[in-house]
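Can't paste images in this forum, so I'm doing it all in text. The chain is below; anyone willing to post the predicted structure tokens underneath?
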Amino acid sequence: MLLRPLLALVAAGLLGLGALTMAGWQADALAREEEGRRLAQAIQLQGQETLRLLEPFAVSDEAAANLHAEPDPRWAQRELARHMGLLQQDVALLVRPDGFLELALAGREVLPPAQAAPMLAQLAPAIAALRGQRNAHRPQATTLGTTQGQGLRLLLTTRLSGRPAQVALATIIPATQIGNLPPPPPPIVVMLRWLDSPAFLRGLSSAQMLAGLRVAPVLAEEGLATLTLPDATGAPVLRLAWDAQRPGGALRQDVLPFVWVGVVLVGFTAFWSAWRLRRTVRALAAREREAAIAAHTDALTGLPNRRALLAEAPALLAAQPMLLMVLDFDRFKRVNMGLGHAAGDRLLAATAQRLGEWLRDTQEQARLFRLEGDQFVLLVSAPAEMPAQARGPALRLFARLRRAVRQAVLLEGGEIRLDVSAGMVLSPAHGTTLDALLRHADAATHAAKREGRGRALMFEPRLDRQHEHRLAMEAALLRALREGLLHVHYQPQFDARTGTLRGAEALVRWDDPRLGAISPAEFIPLAEEMGVISDVALLVLRQAVALLRDPAIPRLSVNLSVMQLRRDGFLDQALSVLAEAGVPPARIEFEVTEGVLVDDTVAVKHRLDGLRAAGFALALDDFGTGFSALAYLRLFRFDRLKIDRSFIRDLGQEAEAAAVVSSVINLGHGLGLEVVAEGVEAPAQLAELRRLGCDLVQGYLTGPPMPPGALKLLAARAREAGMRQDHALGDPAPL
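Text version of the structure:
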């Protein structure tokens, strides 16, 4: 009697177990299918976004004017590199109207023709199809429409040089009719993203919440979800794999114990299983929403990121006039170098939090974005009647923002105070696209920093020209460092009483084959802002040490920058350079200005004491030009004191000048320091310095900066004359 009901219960349990297992498998399959669909859609959307953002460059009067008849290589390289960074592409090709390659870039580096030519050859059918050549095979690429002037764009997935790639092609045509342009075909710009690059896969994995996204082998492991990307002919280009979510597995693990408890719970289990499955689907949807939010949020500060700005700005700019500020923190690189990047990140996060609180308290309708590094963008609604010249409201807004930034932040046991510079633009007065507004605001930001930092400037057309000049100077300086175009001249220093050659100061010079002679007053600050001043200073040190192999040269002075002094391992690096040349540290003197001593005096004193303990001599340069010169003489130990040339200028003409110089000389001697007067250009100045007891003199009167060979000749003549000059001090030095 009981067997039949029991068998019925067992059969019902088995049916329920089978149904549960099938439901789990189906849930796993649906999850894999949905993840694959989202992944394919995300890759396609990224390509379409690339084509959309490429259109302002391809359909442009400026691009057509610079690339059609006689391409401007500097313009092409600069603009292609900038758009590659904006679009996050790996390779860019510029194809001339005759089908030959004009330029190929990978990152910011120019690709050799041997690497670029195979890619161009493989893209030839697509290029021919884009230009509408009837005799060329037209691949089945996705054509995303036409632009003004019958411009065309293509997006295709293919293999280039053995690697899977997503390729965007666009014809370069004018947005308006421009005369004197050659007839079609137009040049073509090609943007290429490697689909198997780790950075691209990490970005997709993070954005789509897919664990372990990677290139799959031919035989995928068990449990992996895969997606095959085909080319236009259907041939596989790339196979991706990831660790698929398994909601069905979790479902079976949670439910099976209840199934075996008894068949009497089958009904309840079925109901509970359906509820759990629905909750799993909802969780997947919630995770998709979280992935979308994470893709538009900066992980460090919690602010909207560049991707969010690119997504939101077009609608905001089209809806109403906007004020856009590019914010750049002043001397933030010093924090990273002095305290480390982790401390710099904490400082940025604290400052971003403070700016967010300030925005919530203000009445302005504004959005704050973090672009990259220490660069932020503020978008503020602007009154429709505000003209581009109305700087007042914008400057008052910046002043309030700056007060929020300048509040002290406790970091590494001390207080850090940041300052900020800004470039401001108004839409539509200064541009209608985000790309144009950012470019103009960036130009205004650099101009604000050049004019003293801690300020904001509204964009003017002249700033664009200055910004282009700065970009050209930056590229030229990097080229000069690579190609060895920087060289060192040496200005001799003589004993004021005996005329003996005592040493020389190393002064870097730059003679560019394209730009001519460039003043150190222009390229030294530029090198500091670019973060390459340490490279320049190391070059000067190496050349000076090489010259000291000549025993006739007593000593050379080398200027020491704050970035060098803060750099870990600088002392070991300097000692290594001297050891390679067999030169003792005592023959090198490092000159520091008061500006080097201002920030973090405890750390600076520790570094300077280390240099002095190693045997290097130290000199305080440009003495008297700052407010704390006397305090620095008491705190730091120097060997020599250099009187700034501004005090020497009126010497021999005004009694007050003699009184000041005499006081400085007596102060130096009282502290046991040798005193050097620089900028000596007249016999009366030299005579007065001798009378006042100055130890060393340096200037155009006694010897201008000279190349290494001239200094060696001067030192040899002094040595032959018993370490004394064979000409009267005050006469022009022999060259």
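The mean pLDDT is 80. Residues 306-459 form a domain with the Alpha-Beta Plaits fold (CATH 3.30.70.270).
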